[in-house]
Amino acid sequence: MSAPYGFDIAPVAALLADRTRAAMLTVMLDGRPLSAGELARTAGVSAATASSHLAKLLGGDLVTVVKQGRHR
Predict the structure, then answer these.
(1) Class in CATH terms, 1-72
(2) Which of 5, 11, 31, 63 could form a disulfide bond with 57, CB atoms 3.0-4.6 angstroms apart?
């Protein structure tokens, strides 16, 4: 199995270097699915800002999307 970034950790480090993304990832460490709104409140940002950060984390393969009813 090859890592999506190979041996280049710079892209992952760039994603983790942002305080908002780091706060959101830290909250998700326990494995519970959380909505963008819940993550926004935890990180102290708007839902739109949280969604933008989540898109970056999703693009970097650091998070996955789980559908639960009408929520993602």
Answers:
(1) mainly alpha
(2) 63
Q: How far is CA 20 from CA 51, 61, 62, 63, in A?
A: 11, 17, 14, 14
26 or 72, which is more confident?
A: 26
pTM of the predicted model as reported, rounded to 2 decimal places:
0.82
Inform me whether the pLDDT recorded for 59 exceeds 70: yes
| 3-state DSSP of 26-70 | HHHHHCCCCCHHHHHHHHCCCHHHHHHHHHHHHHCCCCCCCCECC
What 8-state DSSP symbol labels residue 8?
-
Highest-pLDDT range among 5-9, 14-18, 65-69? 14-18
Residue whose tokens read 């494995």: 31
Q: What are phi and psi of 33, to 5 degrees?
A: -75, 130
